[in-house]
Amino acid sequence: MNKNTICLWYDNDAEGAANFYAQTFPDSTVGAVNRAPSDFPGGKQGDVLTVEFTVCGVPCLGLNGGDTFKQSEAFSFQIATDNQEETDRYWNAIVGNGGEESMCGWCKDKWGISWQITPVALTVAFTDPDRAAAKRAFDAMMEMQKIDIAKIEAARRG
User: Fold this and answer.
1) What's the whole-model pTM score?
2) Do 47 and 104 reside in the same domain of the chain?
3) pLDDT at residue 1 above 80?
4) What is the pLDDT of residue 154?
5) How far is 122 from 141, CA to CA, in rounded Å?
6) Which of 91, 98, 74, 93 is nearest to 144 (CA)?
7) Are residues 87 and 63 in the same domain?
8) Triad 60, 72, 124: Cα angle to 5°
9) Per the structure, how many domains does the chain have?
10) pLDDT tens profile 105-140
11) What is the CATH number of the domain that holds 90?
12) pLDDT of res. 13
């Protein structure tokens, strides 16, 4: 058992979310699916209560707690991507599966979990010792939803 596990609250589809993440991201799996031993505020005895899963190697527990609490952007998964193809693949998988686009590389899956699909090129641009180049890249990002690496690199070059 892991010493630290991220617990994510779902209305009632933690298993569906875990399966989607496992199919979408590398080093992601679904482990134990645990059923409630008795009725609980979000469900009935025998319903799926928790799902153990990993997302890119990070251990998580999905809790089907009902509709009492909602997800917010205060928590997000940040996925570092190596190129535009990988950026597009993850972004399109999340948005295309009932999710929604946001700004600056953020999107939300259909379960309300926020994701930052962040190309490594963007992180490199922000840490450029040439602070004017970093600012140009940052300003370009502020106009984007999904990050366009070519536009970030062009802005960085000026």
Assistant:
1) 0.94
2) no
3) no
4) 98
5) 8
6) 91
7) no
8) 75
9) 2
10) 999 999 999 999 999 999 999 999 999 999 999 999
11) 3.10.180.10
12) 96
